[in-house]
Design brief:
The chain is of the alpha/beta class and about 300 residues long. The protein contains six helices and 17 strands. The chain has two domains: about 5-120, 2,3-Dihydroxybiphenyl 1,2-Dioxygenase, domain 1, CATH 3.10.180.10; about 140-295, 2,3-Dihydroxybiphenyl 1,2-Dioxygenase, domain 1 (Roll).
Length: about 300
């Protein structure tokens, strides 16, 4: 029987960047997000296809991951989740309370096992979303967020033990060494993933497009904007989703994707995909072969925000 999880879905990612105006302008002018709300040094960016009040928050400061936000179905579930995490000695940033940031809501924040800030919330204001038009090359929603971890399996086990996430698939070296785990909190193949890296950092964040036509047009649009394509276009094996990775002005890897697999959790069995097989990384064979040079781009800078809660 499918796990009855208290975490319902991925809501948003929040990043701090020193080049705040440049980053905000890139995501609005080129990437296709809309500024739902702005304050001095703070911008809340929404996707036209998503009812979430925002899917990306940018803040002016030293480069870091501020937090990753998840949805919870009700206040009762917020209370149940907080009680569970408290009993398991998870370190809280703050207890359940009314949230004062844009969009409001009710929720709490904790540090994960490596010190990343996580938010769990419900009851926030939804925005009026719309269907993305055919051939409109803008994101529908935030698809997934991926971490680098120096302690891959320990990081993943924290999400399994405390949040009831499940591994959908894994990438492994030919000798069986784990390299990446894809984690789900609902029927979507993954909402987060964790990659083995030299340090804790953001690997990439991914934005869902309407379909392959809009995904391809979006990739072309970003190329014409002058952004560097790190890897793609192609189609992964794990998750069966398309990929086109770019570097944003702050040096973070960001992705356009579409057609991420939706699983029947009652019958799904995780696979371990050998990264030495070309089809593991790209079923189509259209992207450059994965190499250390490509992988290094997603190692990113060391996250300076571990066990330091963001001010907002």
């Amino acid at each position: 029987m499918m796990t009855d999880r208290l975490v319902s879905h991925l809501r948003y990612a929040a990043l701090a960047v020193p080049n705040f105006e440049e980053e905000r302008d890139f995501f609005v002018t080129h990437w296709g997000l809309s500024e739902a709300h702005g304050e001095e040094g703070l911008s809340y960016l929404a996707a036209e296809g998503s009812p979430e009040p925002y899917i990306l928050r940018l803040r002016r400061d030293e480069k870091r991951v501020d937090l990753v936000g998840f949805g919870v179905r009700s206040r009762e579930d917020v209370a149940r989740l907080a009680e569970k995490l408290r009993a398991e000695d998870v370190r809280f940033v703050h207890e359940p309370r009314e949230l004062t940031q844009y969009g409001g809501g009710y929720g709490f924040r904790v540090f994960d096992g490596d010190g990343r800030t996580l938010e769990f919330s419900t009851g926030y204001e939804l925005r009026q979303s719309r269907k993305i038009r055919e051939r409109e090359p803008i994101p529908v929603k935030l698809s997934h967020f991926v971490y680098n971890s120096a302690n891959l399996n320990e990081t993943v086990q924290w999400y399994i033990d405390h949040l009831d996430f499940a591994i959908s698939d894994s990438l492994v070296r030919p000798d069986g060494t784990d390299m990446m785990h894809f984690l789900r909190c609902n029927e979507n193949h993954h909402s987060i993933a964790v990659a083995q890296g030299p340090h804790h950092s953001m690997h990439h964040m991914s934005f869902e497009m309407r379909s392959i036509e809009e995904w391809m047009r979006g990739a072309g649009k970003i190329l014409r904007a002058g952004a560097r394509m790190v890897w793609g276009p192609g189609r992964h094996n794990a998750g069966d989703n398309t990929f086109a990775y770019f570097l944003d002005p702050a040096g973070n890897t960001i992705e356009y994707t579409t057609e991420l697999a939706v699983l029947d959790e009652d019958t799904w069995h995780p696979s371990r995909h050998d990264i030495s097989e070309l089809s593991t990384q790209d079923q189509w064979g259209t992207a450059a072969e994965m190499s250390e040079l490509v992988a290094r781009e997603s190692f990113n800078d060391i996250d300076t925000g571990l066990f330091v809660a963001p001010p907002v």
